[in-house]
Structures are given as structure tokens and as C-alpha cells.
Amino acid sequence: MSAEFVSYNEIKTFFEDGWIDEVLFPVKAGKEATVYCCKACRERGEAYFALKVYRPREHRNFRNAAIYQEGRVVGGTRTARAVRNKSKFGRAVAFGGWLSHEFTMLGMLHAAGADVPRPLAISESAMLLEFLGEDGSPAPQLCEMRLSPAMAEALLERALRNIEIMLASHVVHGDLSAYNMLYLGGQLRVIDLPQAVDARSNANARSLLVRDVANVCRYFACQGADAEPGTFAAELWDLYQCAKLFPQ
Length: 248
Fold this sequence. Notes:
- By secondary structure, this protein is of the alpha+beta class.
- It has 2 domains: 15-137, Phosphorylase Kinase, domain 1, CATH 3.30.200; 138-241, Transferase(Phosphotransferase) domain 1 (Transferase(Phosphotransferase), domain 1), CATH 1.10.510.10.
- It has 7 helices and 11 strands.
- The protein has helices spanning 8-16, 65-69, 77-85, 88-112, 149-168, 205-222, 232-241, and strands at 20-29, 33-40, 48-54, 119-122, 126-130, 133-134, 137-138, 171-172, 181-184, 187-190, 197-198.
- The strands form 4 sheets. It has a 5-stranded antiparallel beta sheet, with helices on both faces. Strands 6-7 form a two-stranded antiparallel ribbon. Strands 8-11 form a two-stranded antiparallel sheet.
- Strand 2 and strand 3 (48-54) form a beta hairpin.
- The longest helix is centred in the middle third of the chain and has 25 residues, at 88-112.
- The radius of gyration is 19 Å and the shape is globular.
- 39% of the residues are buried.
């Protein structure tokens, strides 16, 4: 491994299990994690993988964490009590859950047909994902793109369809915007789901859904699309409540 910007101990399982040969360069550094481009092992049949390494819990900054964590299952009664009381052990459990939660969400949503990266493998502090890009160049964030009105209309439709697929799977992204959607070959991909909530158990799910829809429509309106959010979120929620949403 030639890259010195990530600890080998954090990701050694991906080398030992024959997933990656080398960490090449950082793609994106965020408050909670950093994503790297990695050279895939030849036997895997792909040229690159994306490696998402979560920061040590004392350096993470999940804003409004309680809003997103409401309703999550965090283990037995004693563990749940520790999380509620925010003891040292409870904080460790809570922060450790973000990684496994995102990996689970990605797997479920990818299987449901959502435009999310395919999750591949997970360790204690990192996960390996499908690399989104071309010839080793990472796909840009949607917020960096200047779209034609026609393309904006098409991508808006797909973004709203992704929101629908997620909700049909009982998931609300919770932080959806042009900053966590990527533009790849005329298509979009939704990323960054550690804060995704379960619509069945989180009382904030409906308000988060409304915010996601508003954020998406605001961006595409600026790109020339007819993107008034109107009552889309309310209608989607009503269909969900009546069990009339289906992923496919």
C-alpha cells in the first residue's frame, strides 16, 4: 500500500481477503468519513473500488444525531439503556452503529433497485463499495454540474423515483441534496446514508422526507427544471401509509 493517509490496521482485512491491492488517492473528505479510490485485485474482475473509512468516534460530527437514531435497534436492554444515558460505552455503541447501519441500508436499497453504490465488504471502521467513476476518475457531485433543462428534468424524475423506492423499502435518506448525489454518465447515484431513518419507527421520518424532496426540487429548479415540490412528499407519505408503494 503506497498511500500513507490511511492506517493499514483500519483496512487490512480488505487486503488480506483479496479485495484491494493499493489505496490510490482520497476522493472526498467529509466530517464523518473519507472516501478513497483503491486498485482492485485482479481476481475481482473490476479495476477500482471505493473505500470509505470512518473517522475515530471522538472526531466524528453527526449533526442532530438523536433525530436520525430514533427507533434504531441497538442491541439488548442494557446496551439500549447505555445509549440513552450516553455513557462512555453507550457513545461507543451509538457511533459504531453508523457504519453498519449505512452498509445495511446500501445493501437493502441496491437490491430494491435504488441508484446507490453496491456495498461489497465491511470492517470495524471502514467499508468497501462499488467505485463510481470512469477510468479511475471519480464521478463529480451533482452540485458541481451545470445541466441543460432537459437533463435536469430527466434527473429530477429519477431522483424523485429514488426517494419513492427508498420509502417503499421503509427508508428516508434524511439528508438528501445535490451534495450527496453523484453524476455518472448522464445518470445519478445517491450516496451517504449513515443517517437514513426507518419510516416505521422514527417519528421524524415524514418531516425528513419533506425536507429531502424540497432540497432536491430546489437544486433542479436552479438548473432549469419544472421542479415545484408541491404536495409530492405528502402524497408519497399517504401512499406509504396505505401500503401502496412498491420498489419496482
